[in-house]
Every structure is written in structure tokens, then in C-alpha cells.
Amino acid sequence: SHSNFSFFLLGAKWFQPHNVSVSPTIALTALPFSPTDKNPDEDTSPKPTIFLPSLAERKLHNTGTYLCLLENFFPDVIKIDWKEKNGKAILESHQGNTMKTNDTYMKYTWLTVMEQSMDKEHKCIIKHEKNKGGVDQEIIFLSMNEDETNQWPFVDPLQLQRASTSAYYTYVLLLAKSGVYSILIAYCLLGRGVLCSHGKSS
């Protein structure tokens, strides 16, 4: 049954057997492919999860890192910028690779804020074709110098500390993972180069 497949027409060619007087025929080449299962009405916009700077990072390094994890979006084309809440300039930030998870994609991005900017609010701007209403998502990150108990009035301070510490280690883990991937890719590319050079010399 071909109910779950469609076909691509790859090419057509006229041909006629030698020494035979027959009408020319057409040879067609087709390959099956599996169509996408995405429902056009399904919400495949990026779903953000945010992680706040840890107290440990702020005390040890006088910096704070905002981390935003974007999940369950499709297609994979996405653009992310960071700005101060009321600013226009795009800030220098970092992004991990876009990774496929089942039939959707995920990506993480982070912004490290220096001590002199900790009193400012920041925002992460997400551009994706499936955003609701075609409007960019803007995720606001509160100032690090504001009283945390005022920012999170319903969160126990100890629970908040654990959450921010967890965010810090999550950030470190993701950063390390990205570094390992980069090393592996570089190793593979360099390895291919060495093999090619040996092949040419022989």
C-alpha cells in the first residue's frame, strides 16, 4: 500500500530501441518519501524555559548569566537576540547548536551580564515563523540588583537559592557539552584532512 507515501518525479527521458521502428516512450524515475506529519494548526512556536543567575556566580565572579532554553519548535530556522529592556542595541550573547528532538527542535541561549549592568532589566527576543500572530516573543529578565524577595514573593528564599544554583550548573553543563561537540567536530575534520593528505602523497 502506498497510502503513507508520496512520490518525487526525478526525471524523464525519451528513448527508442536501436533498429526498431516503434513510437518513443518515456522512462520515469520516482522515489517514495514520507510526508510530514505536522498539523498546520499545531502550535510549534518556541517554548521558553528561563534560568536565573546564581548567587554563587554573582558573588564569585561579579557577573550574572541569564539562560533561556527554547524547546518544541518547528521548523528549525530561528533567530535570537538579547537587548536591554528599553535599549535598541543588540548585546553580545551566546547560542548553542539547534538540536533535533523527535520531530521538533530545541536550542539554548545565554547572556552574561557584567556588574555595572546588573541594575538593568534585559530581554531575549525570539523570531520564529510560528510565533503567535507573527509577533516576536520577548522574554523579560528582571534586574539582578532588585530585592529577590520582591521579585518572587511566593517563593521560599531557600527554594530560590536552590533554583538559581541549579540554573548555574545547568548553564555550565550545557556550555561544557557544546565545547565537547566542537572538539569532536574539529577532530573529525582534521582527521579527514590528514587522511586526504596521505592519500594524495601515496
Automatic annotation (TrEMBL):
Keywords: Immunoglobulin domain, Membrane, Receptor, Transmembrane, Transmembrane helix. Pfam families: C1-set (PF07654). The chain crosses the membrane at residues 168-190. SMART domains: IGc1. Gene3D superfamilies: Immunoglobulins (2.60.40.10). GO terms for cellular component: membrane. SUPFAM superfamilies: Immunoglobulin. Residues 63-134 form the Immunoglobulin C1-set domain. It is found in: Membrane. Its main location: membrane. This is TCC3 protein. It comes from Crocuta crocuta.
